[in-house]
Amino acid sequence: AVRPAPAPPRSAAPQTAPPSVGTVALTSFIGRDGDLGRIHTLLTEHRLVTLIGPGGAGKTRLAREAVADADGARVVVAELAALTAPDQLPAALLSAAGRAALVRVQPEETAPDTMERLLAALGGPRAVLVLDNCEHLVDGAARLTATLLEACPRLRVLATSREPLGVPGEVLHPVDALPPRDALRLFADRGAAVRPGFRLTDDVRAAAAEVCRRLDGQPLPIELAAARLRTLSPAEIAARLDDRFRLLTSGARTALPRHQTLRAVVDWSWELLGEPERAVARRLSVFAGGATARAAETVCSGPGGPDPTEVFDLLAALVDKSMVVAVTGAGPTRYRMLETIREYAGERLDEAGERSAVEAAHARLFVERAEAAEPHLRGAEQLVWLTRLNDDADEIDITLRRAVAAGDSATANRLVAAMAWSWMIRGLSDATTRWVNAVYAMTGPAPPAARALAVAYSALTELGLERTVGVQAKIKEAERWAARAAAPRHPVLDLLEPGRLLFVEDDPRAAEAVAASTADPWVRATALAMLGSWAGNAGRIGEQRRFTREAHALFTRVGDRFGLGMTVNQLGELEDYAGHHEAAARAYDEAVALATELRNDEDLPQFIVKRALLDARRGDLAAARAGMDRAVELAGPDAISTGLVGMFRALVLRLSGDLDAARRELERVTPLISDAGVGAPQRRASVAMSWADVELAAADLPAARRHLAAAARSAIEGQDSPVNARVAEAAARLAFAEGDPERAATLLGVAVGQRGEPDLGDPEVVALDAAVRRALGDTAAERAFETGRTMPRPAGLEYVSAGVAVGEPGLIA
């Protein structure tokens, strides 16, 4: 909530003075409703509550808002920031108590008199004492607070500090970052104060959100950034945050000196640390996403720093002093810095001349962790080790970035060799391609075993993208590096031999011989899965079924969930073609579950799409629409994935009878999936066929013919058998609608010849086949069907294309 600053208290005689909360706030208070409620509850149940958090978190303002409604208790606010020694505390508190009671405190009183008067002032009716900014006098503040609480049974204390007081009975309330929505509101509110008329319009909202995010949702830095709106736009402020300490220097002149600039805020906290704490803090800055205690002990110790056995206690002290945040979750606790503190500590790391040595220690640790995980990524412990790598993802990423930027070929090759398979099985194809290519281009020295594997991944990436130029050269280079390595040959290197099958895929016996030449069950399973996929694309569906079943059995034996997901998805397709819908549903559900376990964000939407299409085939259009909507949400930023999901969503909309919505969806996605690139002809054929199906449903046969002509041209270019079969089936629907059942029967035969088997699971194809047989009679229909089925694949495609050429229905050129 946004609350206006409270009005000044009315004048009153001393004996009837209302509670005072110190100075009157001059700005609105934004958010923190949950904090206020919890603080009120804590002060009701406990006598000492301490608000802890880093500098600039808004502890002071929150404390004052929390006691603004003290339910009749007298409020005493003692501001301790200006004090320099513990012995000044009693007089400062007595002065604050005097202000709250509107009485004068005599400055000449002796220390004993001061303490006696302070106990008398706070020991009467109910009172709440606010001790604001205790961290620099924490020991003295703790002793005095304990004394006051023991002597004044009706007193409650609300303290603000960057570390706990450590008094028995103390309850802590961490003051965390503002939620993104409240952070944005704060930025807008303070921005409007310095730039009248400023609002969070659509053109500035994203940049303002970026400013708030990079400033960790901390109120004071956000207010300092908003002050810059006098001369900069939100986008310009966001762009300058890499030099945030120079940028954020425009605090209020009336604020505490340490709150007038961002650097002063962090300087204050830094000066309160001992040198061992500073050493750990500056070394911790090399971690991108925070460190576990064990990682910190490894990286933050060493020459010029503490002993490894001392690091944890120092880390705990930094947490207590709000310089480090302890993040708990399913895995080990991680210790991370707010971005502003991390940047500051990084500057101190440079000043100490330690960056090179500390970053090297960081790199050694995470290269070793990645290499330890790699052998387990193809077996039953796959999920455990993927989780560990995921926990270290930020550190591995920054290590790789540093290595590539510095030309450290040895580190970069070792990391790519250790990480590439995990990227592949999680569907991170962009990351795989980017890093593999970047490291492949490096020319410095590298361990032969790591270099062999890095080059092998480069070749496999090219094969996955269906780019064959240069692949053989990379295969030979990987083999040369492997021959120089002392380490045993890596299983992934053996996949290079099956990779050559792209050039001999029309010879399945040679392909099987290559797959059978390895003794490693995982290598054999992977090779067989690749062979199954190629066989399906080539229209040899019987071989696809045999290869895929054998691969699935082997993956089950070794426990590789990625291989299981790929093969069970293919088996689901085969069951779907056979019309075994229940078996297909079980297979697709298993594929979805496996991809979800692996967090394979690239394949998961495609698996969900297949399950939704199966629902549509079974007539459950509500379930199909729900599945497609989920797949749309998961498709992410990749244009092609989004486009393909949208294309199949249009199919479900068509089956639901909403042709206008189907057209709108196809208009949206056609540009996304028709661009040049790998698989573009197949995608163009599919989307053109989808358009044709919509126009067929609308009985606009000329429009359907135009779209099918485009689909046939792309199918000839793409040479993908399942796509070609679907185009032939769509052409058969058009021929039947135009009154040519014989040609429709021939085209259904062409579809079977392209795919290798009929699609018995598609109710539209089954219904068309039945209609054709009624129109022609079984004998004539079968004769026409066999004519199409026995056509060589290229001839079949030419037949489809000629029959849908724009012109007279049924024209054969």
Give the SSE map.
Blueprint: E1 2-3, E2 29-30, H1 33-45, E3 48-52, H2 59-66, E4 74-79, H3 89-101, H4 111-122, E5 127-132, H5 138-151, E6 155-161, E7 170-174, H6 180-194, H7 202-214, H8 219-227, H9 234-239, H10 244-247, H11 262-271, H12 275-284, E8 291-292, H13 293-299, H14 308-320, E9 325-327, E10 334-336, H15 339-351, H16 355-373, H17 382-391, H18 393-406, H19 409-425, H20 429-440, H21 448-464, H22 471-484, H23 491-494, H24 496-499, H25 508-515, H26 521-537, H27 541-558, H28 561-577, H29 581-598, H30 604-617, H31 621-634, H32 639-655, H33 659-673, H34 680-697, H35 701-718, H36 721-737, H37 741-755, H38 763-776, H39 778-789, H40 793-803
Name its key features:
813 residues, mainly alpha, five-stranded parallel sheet, three-stranded antiparallel sheet, 10 strands, 63% helix, elongated, disordered N terminus
Major beta sheet, specifics? 5 strands, parallel
Shape: elongated
Widest sheet, order of strands: 4-5-6-3-7
Low-confidence stretches: 1-24, 808-813
The rounded distance between the terminal residues' Cα atoms is 73 Å
Beta-strand content bin: 5-15%
Overall SS class: mainly alpha
**How many runs of DSSP E, i.e. beta strands?**
10
Plain-language structure description:
This protein is mainly α and 813 residues long. The chain has 40 helices and ten strands. Strand 9 (325-327) and strand 10 form a beta hairpin. It starts with a strand and ends in a 10-residue tail after the last helix.
